[in-house]
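Suppose a classmate hands you a notebook page containing two proteins, each written out with its sequence and a corresponding row of structure tokens. How would you begin to make sense of it? This section walks through that situation. The first entry is reproduced here exactly as it would appear on such a page.
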Amino acid sequence: MIKKNKLTSIIVLGLVAIIGILVAQLLWTKQAYSIEEKKFSQKVHIALLEVAKKLYEGTNHELPAENPVQKVSNDYYIVNIDNDFEPKILDFYLKSEFEKVNINTDYEYAMYNCESDEMVYGNYVSMSEVNKQKPSVYFPKHKNLVYYFAIRFPNETSFLFSSLKFWFVLSFALIIILLVYVYSIVTILQQKKYSELQRDFINNMTHEFKTPLSSILIASNYLKQQPTIQSDEKLEKYTNIIIAQSKKLNTHIETILNSAKSDNSPLQLDKKEMDMLPILRDVIENIQLKYPESDLQIVTSETEVVFEADTFHFNNIVYNLLDNAIKYCEQQPVISIGIVKEANQIQLHFTDNGIGISNKNLPFIFDKFYRIPSTKSNEVNGFGLGLYYVKKICTLHHWKITAKNNPTNGITISIIIPTA
């Protein structure tokens, strides 16, 4: 329950943090757009004021004290000249002044004609060849003004957006990160749910198996003690087969239960300082009782290899690796346990002459329930938990375990044990 609440808290905090950053980014983007809009308006005012000054040059009129530039809307400005001027001169001044203040967006302008009492369309100035033939737009007449011109920026919004590309790219990236985060969390929760269902199923299934299996073992052992069975060689043989297979099945069930238990709650290691060599010899002796034809050797120049580990689990690691190597061998099993002792680590190499593993399957041999599809795998009983258990114990000890194919045949599994 504590772990579940902790995971939920982490997920919620992560989600709140990303949403908070995204909201802040969007607010900053909005503020940056407002600033760019003000800067653009200021540039236009400065440029149009300079145009008005130049239109007054060489005339008998002076520039009025009141600001001649009026902003009617976001993209529409009116400039009161109060003096007659030539359209060609206006076009030249507009281009030169806009270029000075770095206004690189399309614009169009029109002038008031006293004779016709209407706005006369002047020109559409495009920064690209695409919009050269832009159709004219209606410019409304302004009251109380006689000598003036109006200018419009039809692409002001897109121009401002283009100057904020970095902000929008960053905002889009944050949105993508948020979506990926949400998708990852949903996937993790689904996988966690499926994992819990699988673990519960395995626990229930194995417990249900153990009850009838215990009854079979008790009944078989009692049956074996009966004089009738003992006097009949065939019946005694069949009874021994039942007992042996029941014990084997019981061992498999215990393995699955232990694996499920270790997934649910971490294993507690009882680490002690010990000599590795006597443990290896004991395991080899036990293995050779089971597989008399196997040739197992310890290859080292050391007389003592002291390290720190959990004795019980280290025994299981060595037994699992040797048992696995013998099972997957189609000839007389020859396995060497090489020990290399260095200043800050001990290298343990289990080299066999088995059937080997293809390079594409090699990275997955420590995965839970993974069994390599082959004829030999079909012959060997198991659930794919042996090497998974070995990897898990090595990880808990902070040891590194790797596997690689030998140049000729078989594989070498190496365990690196830090001693510093």
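The notebook's second entry, a different protein, reads as follows.
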Amino acid sequence: MPKPEFVLITVEAPPEVPTQIAVDLNKTGIPVGLIGYEYRPLSKPVYFEGIGERGLGAIPTSGLFGRIAVDVASGHVVQIPDVESSTTHHVNRDLGSFSRYIEAVIARFPFYAEGGEERSEEVAEDLRELVSDIDGTPLADNGFWETFCNDVTIGNYADWDA
């Protein structure tokens, strides 16, 4: 598999999303992807009413059934584990931090090439340090990035390194 590339695209926010978040989505944009199927942009953003204080504007998918969204009250990027859930997990403090971390993770890829999977623990710690330097907020228990780093630790991305 070729090395993933960091590319930003702009998206049009659903009309229910506040103006500042809509401007951020259109101006800052969102990454096209991460590695594998961990994150893929939706063809059209979706608004989830009744989740969070004022709702969420979902922008990409996360895993098989989840979504990454912007909490319209705080501007934080969160993960919805599946479309039937009203639970969210913290991802990043804002869209800019989210994009910078995806860029840093892609730049660090392939994860296991220098020393194989036996370095997976060290690689995951490197990624945790990266995210802490960029944002400082996303290593919450069960959070998107902490789960991602745990997956790196157990070798889930070894197949993508080939």
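A careful reader of the second entry would note: The beta strands are 8-9, 30-31, 40-48, 56-62, 66-71, 77-80, 89-92.
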